[in-house]
Specification:
The protein is of the alpha+beta class. It is built from two helices and five strands, in the order E-H-E-E-H-E-E. Strands 2-5-4 form a three-stranded mixed β-sheet, covered by helices on one side. A two-stranded antiparallel sheet has the order 1-3.
Length: 79
């Protein structure tokens, strides 16, 4: 059985997008700056890896990110 995963965001606050990504990837995400929470994001994710998703967001929004695989913690901050 093949499961196709699709998550669609329509002008959602980044904090809500990150909550969905936390559940999907089984990680914790820390928004390092309160201003990040209100950045809006529109996009579609279909079976992409965490790296692919973050690169896409990074290209469209003014963020930097660092992933600690050992702690399963993704930290996001403003550029």
């Amino acid at each position: 059985m093949f499961l196709l995963l699709k998550i669609i965001f329509e002008k959602e606050p980044l904090r809500d997008v990150m909550k969905k990504l936390e559940r999907h990837f089984g990680i914790r995400i820390d928004l390092d700056d309160n201003h990040l929470s209100d950045i809006r994001f529109t996009g579609k994710i279909e079976n992409e890896s965490l790296d692919e998703v973050m690169e896409y967001i990074n290209k469209t929004k003014p963020i930097d990110y660092l992933y600690d695989k050992k702690q399963k913690l993704l930290t996001i901050k403003l550029k």
